[in-house]
Amino acid sequence: MDLLIEGLQEAISLLISFDPRVINIILTSLQVTGTALFFATLIGIPLGAFLGLSDFPGKSIIVAVLYTGMGFPPVAIGLLVFITFSSAGPFGFLNWLFTTRAMIVAQIIISFPLVAGFTMTAVSSVDSNLLLQLKALGATKRQIVLAILKESRLGVLVSIIAGFGAIISEVGAVMMVGGNIERSTRVLTTAIVLETRKGNFGLAISFGIILLAITFIVNFCMSNLPGRGGRRD
Amino acid sequence: MNFLEAPDHGEIEFLDKVYNQSKQPSLDIKRKVTTVFQRPALMSSSVVENIAYPLKIRGKDVNYEQIDQLLVKLGLEELKKQRADKLSGGEAQRVSLARALIFKPEVLLLDEPTSNLDPANIKIIEDIITDYIKNNKTTIVMVTHNLFQAKRLADRVGLLHDGDFIEVKEKEEFFNNPEQELTKDYLAGRLIC
Question: Is the pLDDT of residue B189 over 60?
Answer without folding.
Answer: yes
